[in-house]
Specification:
The protein is built from eleven helices and eleven strands. By secondary structure, the protein is an alpha+beta fold. Helix 8 runs antiparallel to helix 9 and helix 9 packs antiparallel against helix 11.
Amino acid sequence: MTFINIEANTDMRFSEDQQMIQEAARGFCQDKSDIETVRKLLPSEAGFQANVWQEMVDLGWLGICIEENYGGSELGLDCLVPIAESMGRQLLATPFFCSTLAAQLIQRAGNESQKARYLPRIANGTVATLALLDNEDWGATSSQCTLNTELPNSDLQIDGRKQLVEAGAQADIFIVLCQQGEQQRLAIVEREQLDDAAIQAHTLIDETKRAAAIEFNHVRIREDQLLDASASDALNDVKLLGALLTAAESVGATASCLNLTVEYLNTRKQFGKLIGSYQSLKHPAVDILNMMEGARSQVYHAATLLADNLGKLTRDAEIACRMSKVTANDALLFAGDRAVQFHGGMGFTYECDAQLYIRRAQWGQQQFGDSAHHRKRLAPLLLA
């Protein structure tokens, strides 16, 4: 019999900074995003309240991982996780994640001029986002969006269409993934460089979120709008960070979904008894709790490794981010499904709040790769 030895870093810490941020974030999100507010924002164009966004900026959340020289507090990537979990718990949707990830990409792959130009703007609330996908495949190794460098006057031109750009209609700064021959390049495009008709809003299954398709056809840019030519490592790291933040958000949503379900089990009666007294409903509720706590442990383990890692993410950090996404995906999918089932016929109606969580689960599992995507990449990391 052959035994496979899988060695993995299992370190997990919860720092004082994380604790303070978690307490502040939970209180803020509870105050600003109760379930009635969430539902009121569903039909709105932006999907979030401008005053709440400004308060998040004033709290310094947009600058947590931005260097102090550029208007940030430089606290570390681990401090983002409590905010993401708290936002997920209250279904508070803002451009926080996409702006944070765009700032990370500029910070990791930009030159000093680009950092000085864009990072202070993001820290002060300018919405930035990533335009990476030509389709729904997070595993694509090339882009159909092209970068043409053979133009007069040393101009560059982007041609292509990007799908599912988070906060695409609200963003002023776009980081666009392009193909230049055999090489992938990243370009910073500003809103005024796009035609008014270039942005077409998507309708997402999770109506608390906003995304758009964007036409980048014949967009002229300058050489100084291109990030470093060897930005592939930075892009891979930012995708992993995006997966981790989505996982943390999903863990928070799972906790809230479980609370909703348990409250219903403790109030709804069937055949003269509370339905929560039946083992067929008790056991799945416990399964949700176990899955949620397992996913939370994975998320904060990954946060610990990120706190120790200032440069390119290590193999251990990559494993932790991917495992976080897998376990959080599975936990929220299971919780959302059971929440709808346990609410009976009412659970299948749009008016039931269980719908908000099953829809969030469907959206969250695809963002930055579903469970199959990450398991496929975990196998060689763990078993090679």
